[in-house]
Amino acid sequence: MNKKIQTIIAVFLIAVLTVLSAGCGSKTAAPAAKNEAGTQQGGDSSNPLANKKIALVMQINLGTFSAQYISGVKEEVEKKFGGQVTVFTADGDLARMAANLDAAVNQKFDAILIDHGTPEALTKGVQNAVAKNIPVIAFDANIKVPGVTVLEQGDKDMATSVLDKLAKDSGGKGNIVKIWVAGFAPMERRQVAYQEFLKKNPGIKEVAAFGAATANTALDTQAQMEAVLKKYPNKGDITAVWAAWDEFAKGATRAIEQAGRTDIKVYGIDMSDEDLQMIQNPKGPWVASAAVDPKDIGRVQVRYAYQKLHKDQTPETVVLKPVLVTRESLPTEKVTTDKLHDHIKEWGNSDQGIADWMKK
C-alpha cells in the first residue's frame, strides 16, 4: 500500500471518529423523570421495583364502587410505587375475561391483579402466569392455585353485621325481600350468612327473592322491585329489603322512594360516595350498609403484588376488615368516603399489606 492510499485512509478514520464522538460522547444524559412519590421513572432507576407494568383484569366494571376500587389500585401503583396500570374489563363475559388474562400474560406484565371471575374461567390462565413467574393477586375470585394470594372482604361478617342490624330494627319480626345473585364467590359467602340469619330469626320471613348482574343492574333491579311492590301494596306487607350488593340496594331504594313506601327499609352491602349520599338522606329507605373501603381494597391488593415482586412470602388468603355504616352514625352534613374516617374510625386507611420495607 503506497503512502497516498495510507494518508487517505487515515484522514477517513479520523473523520469517522470525530462524528461518533460528537454524536454520542459529548452530550450529558437528561435526568430521569420522577413521579409524585419521588421514584425515578427512567430505565436506569436505582429502585428495582419502579416502572413495573401492572395489569388489572376485571370481570365487570360497573358503578361507583368499581370506579373507586380502580382509583385505589392506580393511586397505590402510580403514586406509591412509580408503576403503570392497564385495566382490562370484560363486561361480565367470563370468556372475554379469560382472554384478557391470557393477553396480560402474553404481553409480559410484571404482575396481574384479578377482580372477581370464576375458577373455571381463570384457573388455566392463572397457572400459566405463575409458570412464567408473573405474580397474581386475586380479589373476590375463589382461585386455588399455589403461589396466588386471594383477597376477600370478610363477606360473611359483612352480611351478618347488616342482617343483625335489620333484625334489631324490626324487633325480630317481619317480611323481607332478598336481592342476591349466584355465581360470584362473595355472593355465595353472603348467602351462607343469610341462611344462618333466617334460622336464627324464625319471626322473619322471606316473601320474595330476585337478582341478576347485568349491564344496568341498578336500573333492572329497580324495575323488578317495582313489580314486587305492586304484588305487596299494603303497609306491613314488606318490612325490609336485604340487598347483597350496592347496585341492588340502589335500584331497590329508588323503586321504594318512587312508590312512596316509607314503611320499608333497605339494608345493603358495599359502599361508594353515591351509596353514602343515599344513606344520609333522612327520608330515604336505605339505612345501613356493611363494607370495606373500595379504595382500600385496591391499595391492599397492590401491596401484596409488590410484596411478591419483592420476593416476600405472602399468605394464600387475606381477609379484609369490614365496617358497618349506619345512618345514625353519620353527620347531617354530606360526607364522602374520603372523609368517612372522620366519623367512623374503622373506615379507610387500612395498613393491611404494608411490609416493613415499604415504610422505608
Describe the structure.
The chain is α/β, with parallel strands linked by helices and 360 residues long. The chain folds into two domains: 53-152 and 295-320, Rossmann fold; 155-291, Rossmann fold. The protein has helices at 3-25, 63-80, 94-106, 119-131, 155-170, 185-200, 217-231, 246-259, 273-280, 294-309, 356-359, and strands at residues 53-58, 84-89, 111-115, 136-139, 149-152, 174-179, 204-210, 240-243, 265-269, 286-291, 317-319, 323-326. The strands form two sheets. The chain has a six-stranded parallel sheet with strand order 2-1-3-4-5-11, sandwiched between helices. Strands 7-6-8-9-10-12 form a six-stranded mixed sheet, sandwiched between helices. Helix 4 links the parallel strand 3 and strand 4 (136-139). Helix 2 (63-80) packs parallel to helix 10, helix 3 (94-106) runs parallel beside helix 4 (119-131) and helix 7 packs across helix 8 (246-259). 43% of the residues are buried.
Largest sheet: 6 strands, parallel
CATH architecture of the largest domain: 3-Layer(aba) Sandwich
Catalogue the unreliable spans: 1-44
Q: How many extended strands?
A: 12
Number of domains: 2
Strand content: 15-25%
What is the third-level CATH name, the topology of the largest domain? Rossmann fold
User: Outline, from the CA principal axes?
Assistant: globular
Task: Give the helices and strands as they follow along the chain.
Answer: HEHEHEHEEHEHEHEHEHEHEEH
